[in-house]
């Protein structure tokens, strides 16, 4: 019997070209022209297929119609017929004539038998059958049927009904009854549709993947790439526009000292790309860091823009493309200072050393040309930074891939740049504070007035005490309010009609551009000082919180000084281990490891004297204006453990470390992880408006630093417990809410539904979460390394953490 007869009897293409189009590879010509016993046909075909990966994929298309049948063995065992030769039975089927033996049922079942022989060969060679799924058809049927609340997601809130996935022929391929699998199907089909993929295999949909594996895969394979940016001709449109401010032009600010970059971007500005944009691209040269003052930054109002970063150069020293970096996501489309450290940890965990190195190089470039690592690379951030992690980033990148002399050369240069930041920013005149015989550092912003990047209306409520007082003084310059009866007099009515209310918008503009109200006081604080403190809390990264009593610049904080202690020990250890104890490029006073250890010891002594509470066994910020230690309990009190401030070989210091951990867990641990601050502290605050860096909200940086801090002192059980709480929260929200990975959580309820201050970045999307959120992605990838196998298995089962 010829192969063509068998193919025809099985309902499959008989011509070689048709077979190739349908799914058969061209090298099966020898099989197609051979005469083989029916029983060997499927086995021989799939032996050939099994030697060629493309053939395996094609074969899955060819036999996709077999899904849904019972097992091959069961089907074959149920077929019983006698008499006649295989050839005659095949011929009869092919011609549509003939009759079946009396004890065999209808003879047309032989076609099914032949198909099942092919399936048997498929199973014997280890090839599974997979159906071909039309992407758009299934996607929009799914949305129409299962997105019952119309939010362009499939979540736990949808009233789902069984959904039938249909193959390319319209036949049922699989029925889903679980809303999570429907959510995964939605995400996979939408991703394929966005890539203009017409059809895909059922196996590609990964419907049985756990929420943990699904989240990990999306972060590693999709989210990091989606969050990656470059500043160059090809990517300028992706990065230069800013949703946080309005300007006539899309301004790109380039350091005047980087002549090659200036020429490169001027060429873009003058090209058709730059000339025909709307709004037009405008390239502006920035002066040296020492000329960037508060007044300079304020004069950019209405023309703020993106600041360029490092370029990759060719052999001639000409820029060819931007060095890549990763942004947090959403409206935060820039390179952010302290976000970068946690993102780098996630990238390194996922093997993306290229991106991690790019992050480090861009941050170092900022110090070289902008004088600091700014809050982010927009001009309205020129006067402030954020919590400093530069040496930690440099060290993590270096230690992840040091292989040759070039890496040490890079490290030496990076340390020299980090030293400039340490000296000029954090030990500069505005941030270094002398308290008796001690010196510590504070957060501070050289700028003045309201921050241009805040959302419209953000200050309206906060400035009400000053606005109300200004309005009273403006209406009644003699001071005080008129008697109540005067309001009904003709003069009072006329005065009311003539008065124009002082709106927040007008009030702030008169403050900024008319030099009014700066010295106006409310609650003992001038309006000028209010904005100084408001800007300082934004440099702290904890914007906003009640922790500093709205006087951030009056505090030396535990977090900042823990980070600077880490700078000093990083310098000491890297100089000692990598450069033999001396690094001359740092200069006479900073070249040797010993001097850095002395600086670290001095900072530790100051922190222990001013911030350590022996009775409670915890660290608290110090209010140097009132000359007393704060009592506000914050997760930042755990940062000295991350910075390894205590010596684990010293029994007394090890005891203190355990006390810090115990107190922090007692006051801050919630069902979903660590709260940013303690509930009792929020309740005791002078004001009671909800702020996002307070209880009950939890943030990835606090979790990650606490885990590592506990591990530094052998407190692995605490680290594992806290990591499990956080990862369960991420996985559970992703499971229930269509893959959502947000900026923060309510750690009391374990929910991403947080509506405080700026809302919750990463929760608003259609059909598929495309990027997550930078440090949240990182916390998931890094957090998995803190779980032993038993907890990892429990997490895959989404077992809730213990109360």
Profile the largest sheet: 3 strands, parallel
Strand content: 5-15%
| Count of β-strands | 24
The helix content is 40-55%
The coarse overall form would be globular
| Class by SSE composition | mainly alpha
Uncertain ranges? 1-111, 121-128
Strand order of the largest sheet: 7-6-8
What is the count of helical runs? 32
Distance between the termini: 70 Å
* Average pLDDT score: 86
Could you tell me the radius of gyration in angstroms?
A: 34 Å
Protein model, in words:
With 803 residues, the chain is mainly alpha-helical. Helix content is 46%, strand content 9%. It contains 32 helices and 24 strands. The strands form eleven sheets. Strands 7-6-8 form a three-stranded parallel sheet. The chain has a three-stranded antiparallel sheet with strand order 16-19-20. The chain has a two-stranded antiparallel sheet with strand order 1-4. Helix 17 (353-370) runs antiparallel to helix 18 (390-401) and helix 18 runs parallel beside helix 24. The longest helix has 22 residues, at 405-426. The radius of gyration is 34 Å and the shape is globular. The N and C termini lie far apart (70 Å).
List the helices and strands and how they pair.
Layout: H1 3-9, H2 16-22, H3 29-32, H4 38-50, H5 53-62, H6 72-78, H7 86-95, H8 109-124, E1 132-134, H9 135-146, E2 163-166, E3 172-176, H10 179-194, E4 199-201, H11 211-226, E5 228-229, H12 236-239, E6 250-255, H13 259-270, H14 272-275, E7 281-286, H15 294-298, E8 305-307, E9 311-313, E10 319-322, E11 325-326, H16 337-349, H17 353-370, H18 390-401, H19 405-426, E12 432-435, E13 438-441, H20 464-475, H21 490-498, H22 504-513, E14 521-522, E15 525-526, H23 527-539, E16 555-556, H24 558-579, H25 593-610, E17 612-613, E18 618-619, E19 622-623, E20 628-629, H26 639-642, H27 651-668, E21 669-670, E22 673-674, H28 679-683, E23 697-698, H29 700-712, H30 716-736, E24 745-746, H31 774-783, H32 789-796
Parallel strand pairs: 6-7, 6-8
Antiparallel strand pairs: 1-4, 2-3, 5-11, 9-10, 12-13, 14-15, 16-19, 17-18, 19-20, 21-22, 23-24
Helix pairs in contact: 1-7, 4-5, 4-8, 6-8, 9-10, 11-31, 16-17, 16-18, 16-31, 17-18, 17-19, 18-19, 18-24, 19-24, 24-25, 29-30, 29-31, 30-31
């Amino acid at each position: 019997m010829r192969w063509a007869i068998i193919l025809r009897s099985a309902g499959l293409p008989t011509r070689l070209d048709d077979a190739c189009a349908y799914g058969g590879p061209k090298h099966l010509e020898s099989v197609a022209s051979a005469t083989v016993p029916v029983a060997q046909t499927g086995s021989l075909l799939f032996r050939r297929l099994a030697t060629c990966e493309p053939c395996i994929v094609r074969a899955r298309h060819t036999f996709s119609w077999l899904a849904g049948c019972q097992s091959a063995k069961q089907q074959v065992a149920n077929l019983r017929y006698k008499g006649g030769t295989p050839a005659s039975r095949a011929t009869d089927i092919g011609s549509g004539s003939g009759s079946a033996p009396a004890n065999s049922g209808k003879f047309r079942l032989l076609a099914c038998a032949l198909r099942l022989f092919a399936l048997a060969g498929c199973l014997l060679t280890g090839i599974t059958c997979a159906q071909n799924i039309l992407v758009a058809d299934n996607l929009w049927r799914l949305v129409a049927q299962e997105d019952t609340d119309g939010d362009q997601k499939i979540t736990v809130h949808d009233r789902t009904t069984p959904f039938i996935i249909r193959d390319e022929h319209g036949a049922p391929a699989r029925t889903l009854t679980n809303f999570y699998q429907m959510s995964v199907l939605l995400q996979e089909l939408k991703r394929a549709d966005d890539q203009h993929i017409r059809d895909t295999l059922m196996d590609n949909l990964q419907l049985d993947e756990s929420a943990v594996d699904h989240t990990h895969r999306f972060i590693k394979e999709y989210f990091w790439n989606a969050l990656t940016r470059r500043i160059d001709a090809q990517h300028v449109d992706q990065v230069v526009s800013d949703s946080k401010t309005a300007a006539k032009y899309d301004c790109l600010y380039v350091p005047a000292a980087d002549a090659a970059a200036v020429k490169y971007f001027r060429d873009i500005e003058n090209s058709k790309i730059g000339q025909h944009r709307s709004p037009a691209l405008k390239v502006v040269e920035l002066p040296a860091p020492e000329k960037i003052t508060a007044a300079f930054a304020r004069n950019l109002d209405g023309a703020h823009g993106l600041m360029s970063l490092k370029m990759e150069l060719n052999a001639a020293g000409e820029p060819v493309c931007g060095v890549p970096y990763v942004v947090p996501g959403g409206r935060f489309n820039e390179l952010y200072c302290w976000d970068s450290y946690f993102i780098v940890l996630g990238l390194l965990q996922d093997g993306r050393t290229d991106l991690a190195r790019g992050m480090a190089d861009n941050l170092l470039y900022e110090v070289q040309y902008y004088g600091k690592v700014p809050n982010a690379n927009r001009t309205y951030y020129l006067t402030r930074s954020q919590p400093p992690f530069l040496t930690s980033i440099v060290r993590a990148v270096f230690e992840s891939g040091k292989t040759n002399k070039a890496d040490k050369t890079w490290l030496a240069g990076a340390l020299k740049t980090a030293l400039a930041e340490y000296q000029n920013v954090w030990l500069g005149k505005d941030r270094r504070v002398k308290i008796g015989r001690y010196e510590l550092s504070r957060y501070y912003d050289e700028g003045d007035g309201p921050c241009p990047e805040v959302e419209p209306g953000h200050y309206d409520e906060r400035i009400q005490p000053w606005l109300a007082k200004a309005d009273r003084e403006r209406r009644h310059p003699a001071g005080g309010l008129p008697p109540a009866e005067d309001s009904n007099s003709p003069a009072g009515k006329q005065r009311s009609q003539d008065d124009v209310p002082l709106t927040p918008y007008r009030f702030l503009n008169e403050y900024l551009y008319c030099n009014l109200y700066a010295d106006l006081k409310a609650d003992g604080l001038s309006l000028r000082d209010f904005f100084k403190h408001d800007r300082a809390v934004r440099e702290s990264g904890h914007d906003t919180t009640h922790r500093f009593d709205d006087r951030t610049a009056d505090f030396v904080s535990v977090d900042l000084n823990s980070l600077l202690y880490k700078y000093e020990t990083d310098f000491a250890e890297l100089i000692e281990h990598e450069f033999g104890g001396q690094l001359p490029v740092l200069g006479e006073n900073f070249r040797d490891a010993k001097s850095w250890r002395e600086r670290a010891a001095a900072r530790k002594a100051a922190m222990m004297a001013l911030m350590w509470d022996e009775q409670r066994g915890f660290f608290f910020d110090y209010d140097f204006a009132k000359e007393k230690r704060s009592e506000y309990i914050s997760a930042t009190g755990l940062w000295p453990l991350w910075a390894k401030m205590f010596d684990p070989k010293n029994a007394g210091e090890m005891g203190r470390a355990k006390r810090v951990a115990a107190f922090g867990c007692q006051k801050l641990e919630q069902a979903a992880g660590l709260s940013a601050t303690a509930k009792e502290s929020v309740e005791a605050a002078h004001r009671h408006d909800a702020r996002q860096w307070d209880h009950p909200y939890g943030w990835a940086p606090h979790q990650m630093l606490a885990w590592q801090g506990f591990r530094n002192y052998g407190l692995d059980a605490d680290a594992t417990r806290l990591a499990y709480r956080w990862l369960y929260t991420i996985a559970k929200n992703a499971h229930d809410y269509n893959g959502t990975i947000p900026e923060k959580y309510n750690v009391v309820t374990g929910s991403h539904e947080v509506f405080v201050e700026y809302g919750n970045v990463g929760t608003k999307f259609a059909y598929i979460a495309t990027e997550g959120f930078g440090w949240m992605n990182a916390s998931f990838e890094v957090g998995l390394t803190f779980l032993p196998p038993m907890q990892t298995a429990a997490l895959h089962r989404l077992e809730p953490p213990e109360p």
